[in-house]
Structures are given as structure tokens and as C-alpha cells.
């Protein structure tokens, strides 16, 4: 390593990207390109950073596999910051394997953590959990240990395991203090404070009550019949009926639950479930069919009884009925929750994370932009979407693909 490369690397390690660029800005050899790429990433020019890192990786080629693998890992981290989820993580994991084979364990662990964080952003929680389980967290350097514990906490929170999540965040705080990285410590503090904010609302006869995550966990284990509008499920203790793919049935269940212990008129159910304000006999016939389907699916939890004017929900064993609603209303709550992380998302990345088509996401974004809730930057393929942070509550229950509640 020549003296300019060494000095540039030291400047980057000290958080001085401009100082690093001064030493290698006019050089196009692979080590200089790699350092320039990292410097541009630190300055926030992600597109230029990725271009430089790719050129560096090509320059190193197969005869310098370790350096090439490091460039691939660095580019993957920039892509994650850029919310670019195109392609698979196969190249990143291959780079991690290359680094492991050359005893570059720190960079190999870093690569695998990037893969875990990428899977979390995409809602691929099983993949993230498997990647995290493969890491020996006890051997990680402090900064990587803090990142691993943060990922572990997010997995626990998305499965509503609040106590293990708090323990993981406490370990992350200790690791961040050992790492002495202010930005990392601030990130851990922010994640910990989210537990103190409301995560959902309890709707019932007594009105609306904001709930923290630990209170949501207590409600779900209370034994009451919970109509969960965050995950579109019916739940009694450990028993669940998933209605995420049955929107009409869930609309009926929620409407009946909101009126419990009273009943709901047929025309109200038709309006809520089918969006019809002037129902005719065909709509009433369809309502009978859909209520029959809901009655069959919820038979182990409650009965759906016919009344003179409509239907009512009657839970078994004298249980209460509670509606658990997300902290914000609207069909686009998950989309807004993703955008509120402060990063700029592309339409394709949002579609991938939500499991929806790009056209569906584009229509939703256009509606949100008209309402002033999101804004775009750039054009065509470079267009990115942003939203202001959602202050005052945590969005963990709004994120897509939460783990089955256990």
C-alpha cells in the first residue's frame, strides 16, 4: 500500500471524506477508486459511490478476490442506504464466503449483517432470522454487535416479543457505548424510545385508547376476542384466523366487533364490506353468503347471530370483543410507514417490500402526493419517494410481513 492510499484510508476511518478525496481524487487505480467510492458514500452521493465501487471491483478482478469482495460488500451497503433492492443477495453472500475463506472475519460478518438488514427491509423475516442465527454475536466487534442486536430487536418486535426485544436493545446500547460511534448510539436510543410511544389503538365500547407495544402484547394474550386490524386477523389467545387475503370478511368482522355487544344493520354491513350505499336484493344475498363464510371461519371463537335488523358477534365463554387498530388510518398505512424511515425509496423497492405490483404502488403514491403526505425527487428511473417522520408513535405494527404472532 502506498503512502497516499494509506493516508486516504486513515482519513476515511477518522470520518474525513474530503481529506481522503484530496489524496486520491485524480487516481483511477482500483484501491483509489474504492476509497473514492467510500468517500462519496460518506458525503451522501450514493449513485457516484456505487459507480466508483463497481469500477474498483472490476479493476481488482479475480486475481485480487479479497479486495474485490470488500468492494462488493461496500456497494451492497450503499445500495441498502439507497433502498435499492434489485437482484438477489447471492453476490453479497458469495463475497462474505470469500472473505471468510481468507480469514477476513470482520468484513465477512459485516457482509452477512447487511444481508440480514436487507431481508428485514423487504419483510423477509424468516430469511433475516436465519442469517442472524448463523452469526456468532459474541465474537462480533462492538459496532457490528450493536447492529446485530438491533436487528434481533426488530425481529422480536415484529413478532410482538417485547421482553426479548428490550433485552436486545439493552445489549445494543452497551455495545454501541463500547464502539464509541455517536451515530450508532443515537440509533439505539431512538429505537429504545420507540417502545414508549403508542403502537396501536384499542377500540371498544369505552372509546379509543392508545397502546404501547407491551400493552398490545398483554391485550393479545388476554383471552379476549381481538379483531386485529394491524395484521387483519381474528385472535383468541394463541388461536388465530388470518383474513389478510379475505378483505370482505375482515371488513364484516371489524364492523361487527366495533358494534359489539350490539348488532349491525344489514345496509351498514353492505356499505362497509361492499361499498354499496343503495343495496338491492343481490347485495343482501351476497351478504348472507359472506356472513356464512365468516361464521364458518370464526366458529371456534364466536358465533355470528342473525337479528331482526342485521347480525351481531357473540364470542364464546363470555369473552369481550376488542378491535386493535393501527396508529394511523387508511389503506396506505404500511406504505407511509416504510417511507417514514427517512430514506428515499424507489417505486420498485416499495413494491418489493409490500409484495404489490409497481402499478399499484404508483397509484397509491400519486394519491398520497396529492394529499401532501409524500413527495418525490428525480425523474424516471432516478425518481425516489420520501415522507416526513411519523412522530408520536411507533410504526412497527404497520410494517409488512410481520411474523406470525406467537
TrEMBL record:
Taxonomy, superkingdom: Bacteria
Keywords: DNA-binding
Record-level Gene Ontology MF annotations: DNA binding
Protein name, entry field: DNA-binding protein
Organism: Piscinibacter gummiphilus
Amino acid at each position: 500500500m502506498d503512502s497516499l492510499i494509506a493516508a486516504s484510508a486513515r482519513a476515511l476511518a477518522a470520518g474525513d471524506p474530503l481529506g481522503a478525496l484530496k489524496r486520491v481524487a485524480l487516481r483511477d487505480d482500483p484501491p483509489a477508486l474504492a476509497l473514492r467510492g467510500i468517500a462519496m458514500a460518506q458525503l451522501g452521493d450514493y449513485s457516484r459511490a456505487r459507480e466508483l465501487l463497481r469500477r474498483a471491483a472490476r479493476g481488482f478482478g479475480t486475481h485480487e478476490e479479497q479486495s474485490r469482495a470488500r468492494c462488493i460488500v461496500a456497494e451492497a451497503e450503499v445500495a441498502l442506504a439507497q433502498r435499492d433492492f434489485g437482484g438477489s443477495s447471492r453476490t453479497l453472500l458469495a463475497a462474505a464466503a470469500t472473505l471468510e475463506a481468507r480469514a477476513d472475519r470482520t468484513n465477512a460478518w459485516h457482509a452477512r449483517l447487511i444481508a440480514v438488514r436487507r431481508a428485514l427491509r423487504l419483510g423477509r423475516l424468516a430469511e433475516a432470522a436465519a442469517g442472524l442465527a448463523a452469526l456468532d454475536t459474541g465474537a462480533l466487534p462492538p459496532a457490528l454487535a450493536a447492529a446485530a442486536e438491533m436487528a434481533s430487536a426488530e425481529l422480536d418486535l415484529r413478532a410482538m416479543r417485547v421482553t426479548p426485544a428490550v433485552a436486545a436493545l439493552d445489549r445494543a446500547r452497551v455495545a454501541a457505548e463500547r464502539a464509541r460511534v455517536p451515530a450508532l448510539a443515537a440509533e439505539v436510543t431512538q429505537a429504545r424510545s420507540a417502545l414508549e410511544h403508542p403502537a396501536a389503538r384499542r377500540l371498544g365500547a369505552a372509546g379509543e385508547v392508545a397502546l404501547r407495544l407491551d400493552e398490545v402484547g398483554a391485550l393479545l394474550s388476554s383471552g379476549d376476542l381481538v379483531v386485529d386490524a394491524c395484521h387483519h386477523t381474528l385472535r383468541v389467545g394463541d388461536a388465530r384466523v388470518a383474513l389478510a387475503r379475505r378483505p370482505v370478511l375482515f371488513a364484516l368482522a371489524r364492523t361487527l366487533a366495533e358494534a359489539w355487544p350490539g348488532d349491525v344493520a344489514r345496509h351498514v354491513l353492505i356499505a362497509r364490506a361492499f361499498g354499496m350505499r343503495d343495496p338491492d336484493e343481490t347485495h343482501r344475498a351476497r351478504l348472507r353468503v359472506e356472513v356464512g363464510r365468516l361464521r364458518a371461519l370464526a366458529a371456534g371463537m364466536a358465533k355470528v347471530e342473525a337479528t331482526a335488523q342485521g347480525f351481531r358477534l357473540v364470542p364464546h365463554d363470555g369473552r369481550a370483543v376488542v378491535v386493535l387498530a393501527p396508529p394511523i388510518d387508511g389503506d396506505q398505512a404500511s406504505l407511509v410507514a416504510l417511507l417514514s424511515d427517512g430514506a428515499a425509496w424507489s417505486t420498485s423497492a416499495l413494491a418489493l417490500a409490500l409484495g404489490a405490483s409497481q402499478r399499484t404502488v404508483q397509484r397509491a403514491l400519486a394519491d398520497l402526493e396529492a394529499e401532501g403526505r409524500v413527495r418525490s425527487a428525480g425523474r424516471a428511473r432516478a425518481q425516489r419517494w420520501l415522507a416526513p417522520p411519523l412522530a408520536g408513535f411507533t410504526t412497527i405494527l404497520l410494517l409488512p410481513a410481520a411474523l406470525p404472532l406467537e
